[in-house]
Amino acid sequence: MTDTSFVVSCEWLLQHLDDSQVVIVDCRFSLADPQLGRQQYQESHISGAYYLDLNQDLSSPVEEHGGRHPLPNPIELANKLLAIGVNFQKTLVVAYDDSRLAFASRLWWLLRYLGHGQVAVLDGGFSAWKKAGYPVTDVIGEPRIVTFTPDLQPQMVVDISAVKSRKDLEEIALVDSREKERYLGIREPIDKIAGHIPGALNYPWQEVTDAAGFLLQQQEQRQRWLELENAKEIFVYCGSGVTACVNLLSLELAGIHTGKLYAGSWSDWISYM
C-alpha cells in the first residue's frame, strides 16, 4: 500500500531513520509465548526502535471483567511514551510487528485514543524490512524524555452496556473481527466459551492484509466495508480488543470514521455469562 497518514513503507522509514521527529516502536508479541516478542527485539530490531509489550505496556492487569487485555492506564502509557521520545502531537510514531499488524495496530489505536494522531503502521512489518536488507541492530534505545500529556478521546471506545443497549439498533453495526471458525463457535483456542455476540457480523482481521502482511490497497479496503459504510456507528470487537484494532485501521483507510472499539470484546462479554 502507498504511504498515507496511517501507513508508511519500509522505503519511507529507511529515509527517516535519523529524523528526530520520528520514533519507531517494535510491537512484536506472541500470545502463545508472551516473552518471545521482547526476546526477538533484544536479538534484532529496526535501528533506533524501542519496544512496547502488549501485556506490560499496551494493556492493564486482567480483572474479573474487562477482558483479557484491558486498556492500559492512560497516564502510565503516556509516561512510557514520553520516555521513548514521543512528543505529544508532534512526533510521528511508526509501529511495527511481525503478525500482520495485529499488535502494531493496537498501539496505533491507543495513541489516537490518547489524542496523538501522528501515528502510522509499517506496511509489511519486520519481515518486509529484513527482506529488503535494511539495517537492524541489537542496541537498546536510550530514554529520551519529552512531554506527553494525553487528551483522551472517550468517543472512540464502547463498553458492554453500550453494546448491549445499542447493538440491535438499525443504525448500529456490530463487527466480530476473529477468524470465521471462532466466530461460528466451531473452534475456541483461548476463551472459555465459544461463539459470538448475537447480531454480530464477521469481518476477520486477517483480511485487511495479504499473506505477507502488506495492507490491501485503499480501494480494496473501501470495498470490504461497502455494506456498512452508512452505519452511524460500527462497534468492533475481537477476543480481547487487540486484533479488532486492525479492522479499525482498515475502516479509517476506507474513509469510514464511525468505528469504535469494544475494548473488552468477547472475553469481557462472556465474563458476565
Main traits of this protein?
273 residues, 5-stranded parallel sheet, 2 domains, alpha/beta, 12 strands, Oxidized Rhodanese, domain 1
CATH class of the largest domain: Alpha Beta
Rg on CA atoms, Å? 18 Å
Domains, number: 2
Distance between the termini: 41 Å
For this structure, the CATH topology of the largest domain is Oxidized Rhodanese, domain 1
Tally of extended strands?
A: 12
Question: What form results from the Cα inertia axes?
Answer: globular
Low-confidence residue ranges? none
Mean pLDDT metric: 96
Please describe the biggest sheet, giving its number of strands, its sense, and whether it closes into a barrel: 5 strands, parallel
What does this structure look like?
The chain has 2 domains: 7-137, Oxidized Rhodanese, domain 1 (3-Layer(aba) Sandwich), CATH 3.40.250; 154-272, Oxidized Rhodanese, domain 1 (3-Layer(aba) Sandwich), CATH 3.40.250.10. It is 27% helix and 15% strand. The protein has 10 helices and 12 strands. The strands form 3 sheets. It has a 5-stranded parallel β-sheet with strand order 1-6-5-2-4. β11 (233-237), α9 and β12 (259-262) form a beta-alpha-beta unit. The longest helix is centred in the N-terminal third of the chain and has 10 residues, at 74-83. The radius of gyration is 18 Å and the shape is globular. The termini are far apart. The mean pLDDT is 96.
